[in-house]
Amino acid sequence: MPERRRRNPARSFRPRKPGKAASVTGIVLAVVRPGDLAAARAQMGFSLAWHIVLACLGVGLPLLTVLAEWRGIRTGDQSYRLLARRWARAMGVLFAVGAVSGTILSFEMGLLWPGLMGTFGQVIGLPFAMEGIAFFIEAIFLGIYLYAWDRLEPRKHVLTGLPIIVAGIASAFFVVCANAWMNQPRGFTLQDGRVTAVQPWAAMFNPAAPPQTVHMILAAVMVACFLTASVYAVALLRGRRDRYHRLGFFLPLTIGAVVTPVQIVVGDWAARFVANYQPTKLAAMEGVYHTGTHVPLTIGGIAQGDRLRYGLEIPDGLSLLVGYSPDTEIRGLDQVPRDRWPPVTGVHLAFDLMVGVGFFLLLVAVWLAVGAFLRRRRGRFLLPRAFWVFGLVAGPAAVVALEAGWTVTEEGRQPWIVQGVMSVRDAVNPAPGLMVGLWLVLVVYAGMTVGVVYVLRRLAKQTPVPVAPQERDVEDYPVT
């Protein structure tokens, strides 16, 4: 007899047949009411949407702070040092609040989704454990960085900030690896409804991990940079154009501008990955209902029946983007049962919003580059007042793009919580009363939002900004 081909347990699983959820999870013992499922999804979605902004600031703000302090030491410019000192204080506040919201999320994973964690906890436990180690490293060195500001020689003090940057990036990497696994589950085998042959490293480094982690880390840097720049754009629009506020605007904006075109390239990489590995998600993102070639690219539009209406169509656009040829076949939603369709309108509009904001930020980056080029040629930074307005809008716009991107990632996978293996309904806690938890979370997060804004405003007002008379001369950065 020919030798049987062995299956690689790190890359194999048997998708369950519809209606067999209880045999896999062993947890769903009752019928989940639609209201409870909606409450669990709303609570998790709101918590993630709130926490992810702080997580991005935890990745990008340490980079800005250490860079500003290093520039201050190197150039002797006290404005850089003052920026670094203020950003460090804000970083400490945001880290503390982010730790609270992150703890809430960790409890929600077990309380709201016991089917997921009870069945696959041994598979995806590694990235969560590694994220916890990175979190503690970040907390330790953040404490050292804040406490030792006036107690260490400046060059040594800058070095204490480097582990904060590395740990923040590592923390984001490990968490996104766990989410990537939900899109491309690997590292286990399902046998008779039980998870066997677990390989945690194969699960963590699944095919979706590279594009998702790079895309997320760059997005975090962009959010932190553009949000910080938008704060100083307000001051510039109010006429405070001293060197402190100019540096506070241009330093983060420059970093964000450099990252933006790289992010667009990475976003294209991530979209191509979705086209190859999650064609149903791509069909929802682009509103493709019927499989075929010469598929147009549709901008905007609302799903009605089996087509996308009121959108702007670019002939052959999607086929050209995916396969560089109008003959490229795009798999439509007609290839999967209707009850497994993602919410097309929401996913499609969120994707268009993310892409649109990305190109708006690219416009800001190009505008800044042109201004820098003219400064080198003419010795003056010629930027109109409208540029400050664009800089102000860039911060909230980056947050909108971030939230829209996560909407695409999560909603585009529906109805699966683990792609092709476990549905959201099978993973949710069947116990009643989840709506109470939703209202409690809304109250807690509203209180934290008010508290964060209040504390940050108090910190901004505590230390006056020294403005020398010559610093009021703005001929280096004139507004035309």
TrEMBL record:
<dbReference type="InterPro" id="IPR002585">
    <property type="entry name" value="Cyt-d_ubiquinol_oxidase_su_1"/>
</dbReference>
<dbReference type="Pfam" id="PF01654">
    <property type="entry name" value="Cyt_bd_oxida_I"/>
</dbReference>
<dbReference type="GO" id="GO:0009055">
    <property type="term" value="F:electron transfer activity"/>
</dbReference>
<feature type="transmembrane region" description="Helical">
    <location>
        <begin position="247"/>
        <end position="266"/>
    </location>
</feature>
<feature type="transmembrane region" description="Helical">
    <location>
        <begin position="125"/>
        <end position="147"/>
    </location>
</feature>
<feature type="transmembrane region" description="Helical">
    <location>
        <begin position="436"/>
        <end position="456"/>
    </location>
</feature>
<dbReference type="GO" id="GO:0005886">
    <property type="term" value="C:plasma membrane"/>
</dbReference>
<dbReference type="GO" id="GO:0046872">
    <property type="term" value="F:metal ion binding"/>
</dbReference>
<keyword id="KW-0812">Transmembrane</keyword>
<feature type="transmembrane region" description="Helical">
    <location>
        <begin position="49"/>
        <end position="70"/>
    </location>
</feature>
<feature type="transmembrane region" description="Helical">
    <location>
        <begin position="349"/>
        <end position="374"/>
    </location>
</feature>
<keyword id="KW-0472">Membrane</keyword>
<protein>
    <submittedName>
        <fullName>Cytochrome ubiquinol oxidase subunit I</fullName>
    </submittedName>
</protein>
<dbReference type="GO" id="GO:0020037">
    <property type="term" value="F:heme binding"/>
</dbReference>
<feature type="transmembrane region" description="Helical">
    <location>
        <begin position="214"/>
        <end position="235"/>
    </location>
</feature>
<keyword id="KW-0249">Electron transport</keyword>
<feature type="transmembrane region" description="Helical">
    <location>
        <begin position="159"/>
        <end position="182"/>
    </location>
</feature>
<dbReference type="GO" id="GO:0016682">
    <property type="term" value="F:oxidoreductase activity, acting on diphenols and related substances as donors, oxygen as acceptor"/>
</dbReference>
<comment type="similarity">
    <text>Belongs to the cytochrome ubiquinol oxidase subunit 1 family.</text>
</comment>
<keyword id="KW-0813">Transport</keyword>
<dbReference type="GO" id="GO:0070069">
    <property type="term" value="C:cytochrome complex"/>
</dbReference>
<feature type="transmembrane region" description="Helical">
    <location>
        <begin position="386"/>
        <end position="406"/>
    </location>
</feature>
<keyword id="KW-0408">Iron</keyword>
<keyword id="KW-1133">Transmembrane helix</keyword>
<keyword id="KW-1003">Cell membrane</keyword>
<feature type="transmembrane region" description="Helical">
    <location>
        <begin position="91"/>
        <end position="113"/>
    </location>
</feature>
<keyword id="KW-0479">Metal-binding</keyword>
<keyword id="KW-0349">Heme</keyword>
<dbReference type="GO" id="GO:0019646">
    <property type="term" value="P:aerobic electron transport chain"/>
</dbReference>
